[in-house]
Write a structure and sequence with these properties.
Length: 189
Amino acid sequence: MKIIFKNTKPRQIKKKSRHKKMKGNKYTGIKFTIKVKKLVHQIRLLVGMTEADFNLLYVRIIKKLFRFYRSLVSDILQAVIRALKRRRGYLLPVGSDSEVSFREHEVWTYAVFTATVLQCLMLICPDQSIEHLKNIIPSQGLLWLKRHSVLIEQWNAYLLDHDATVFAELIHIRLEKEDESESISFSSF
């Protein structure tokens, strides 16, 4: 006995894509300009973190920068990229063995990133306290930095008085204001 179904159409089987479709921006929430997207991507490559961690720790700061300092965010990110490129040539913490340096690579890179951002903000907003400016850093990021005593001592020393720590060697920023204009840019020296 054979059963025949009439008026049935063969179903089309859709191939599943290996890639998730993302709505909107890769870095969800704020629509970055093309230039800022390229800079964020370059930072992501220099940092070498997973995308989830990068979004949690780095992109949150970049979103806040973009929201409050939109016209200066590309200059700030370029200063960050220069510092991160310099950081690649250092085994941090200074004087540690290669195992410790490898284990703490990501947290020291994050410290260079945050110190550069905060240094730029201190130049832009000299009347703001460093404690107020630290609010741009996610609480998870601050807790991560505080777990490393040598790192947090040097990080705070650099931010408070630009002490001759390794951060002073990595972060070279100066503010350039054009005469009577609102244009500000950062340059390395």
